[in-house]
Design brief:
Number of strands: 3
Shape: globular
Distance between the termini: 12 Å
Strand order of the largest sheet: 1-3-2
Low-confidence stretches: 58-63
Structural class: alpha+beta
Largest sheet: 3 strands, antiparallel
Radius of gyration: 17 Å
Helix content: 25-40%
Strand content: 5-15%
Mean pLDDT: 81
Length: 139
C-alpha cells in the first residue's frame, strides 16, 4: 500500500515554510516557486538555516518540481506501475476533506467530501480533488 500527495492536491505544495496560500502551485510554475522559496528563506537570515538545503541545485529540481514540491501525479504513477508490470494496481478514491486534521476538526468538510467521491474516479478531476494518491500495488 502506498499513500502520498499528488502534485495538484490543493494544499500539498510543500511550501509551508514560506506561505500558507493553497493552490499556489496551480498558479505559478515550479521554477518560479523554487526561486521565491530560496529568496524568502535567504531573507530570513541565519534563523531559517534549517529550511535551506545545503545544495541549491538539487537533483529533483531537474525534474521541474522545485523545492520540495511533489512532482508525482496519478497518471505518471499509474504509468510507472504499468512499466514495472505490477499484477495489481488499485487506486483508492480519497476526496479532499475525507481524511486529515481539517476533516476531523470541521465535520461539515468531511460531509462535504462525500459529494467528491464519485468524481475522483475521473482521471483529470482526481488530480485536483483527491486528498492523496492512495493505492494498493502487488507484484
Amino acid at each position: 500500500m502506498g499513500v502520498f500527495p499528488s502534485y495538484f492536491t490543493p494544499g500539498e505544495h510543500h511550501m509551508n515554510f514560506v506561505t500558507k496560500i493553497p493552490i499556489i502551485h496551480w498558479l505559478f510554475p515550479s521554477k518560479i516557486l523554487s526561486k521565491a522559496y530560496f529568496e524568502i528563506i535567504k531573507a530570513r537570515g541565519d534563523d531559517a538555516y534549517w529550511y535551506m538545503p545545503e545544495i541549491k541545485e538539487l537533483d529533483w529540481a531537474k525534474l521541474n518540481v522545485g523545492i520540495g514540491i511533489n512532482g508525482t501525479i496519478f497518471s505518471k504513477f499509474i504509468n510507472i506501475c504499468k512499466k514495472i508490470k505490477f499484477n495489481k494496481v488499485q487506486i483508492l478514491p480519497t476526496p479532499i476533506f475525507s481524511v486529515g486534521k481539517r476533516s476531523m476538526k470541521h465535520k461539515v468538510l468531511k460531509n462535504f467530501s462525500i459529494m467528491f467521491k464519485p468524481v475522483v474516479k475521473i482521471p483529470l478531476i482526481r488530480e485536483f480533488l483527491s486528498h492523496r494518491i492512495v493505492c494498493v500495488i502487488q507484484k
